[in-house]
Design goal:
about 120 residues; mainly alpha; c-terminal domain of poly(a) binding protein
């Protein structure tokens, strides 16, 4: 039985790293040692920022809701408090989308909340 050589698998490993480093600046895209380090750091940042993205979107929804409810003379914090008091179980994503896409329906929600 012929001896197994590692030439093809090692080349594939190198190609995988260099493909992931494509578009990087300087030698990080072509030098294997620098590319390995750069790709590892990029993966760490990507992992952390996938989690940060959830908070970023939540703050965007809160900003949109605050702007939308201030047109009705109420602050965001009062709106959320009265929303829970009125037993309306809509999350911030849905409410922000409603405020942007269908202002008439959002106005009805705000009127119900103000009455509660």
């Amino acid at each position: 039985m012929p001896r197994a050589k590692t030439r093809v698998p090692s080349r594939e490993r190198r190609k995988k790293i260099l493909k992931a480093a494509k578009g990087y600046y300087g030698r990080r895209k072509s030098n294997l040692r620098l590319a390995i380090d750069a790709v590892a750091h990029a993966g760490q940042y990507a992992y952390a920022h996938r989690r940060d993205k959830k908070g970023d979107f939540r703050s965007l929804w809160i900003t949109r809701l605050n702007a939308a409810v201030r047109e009705f003379g109420i602050s965001y914090s009062q709106f959320i408090y009265k929303l829970s008091k009125a037993n309306i179980n809509m999350n911030r994503k849905v409410l922000a989308d409603l405020a942007v896409a269908d202002p008439a329906a959002f106005a009805k929600v705000v009127e119900i909340v103000k009455a509660a």
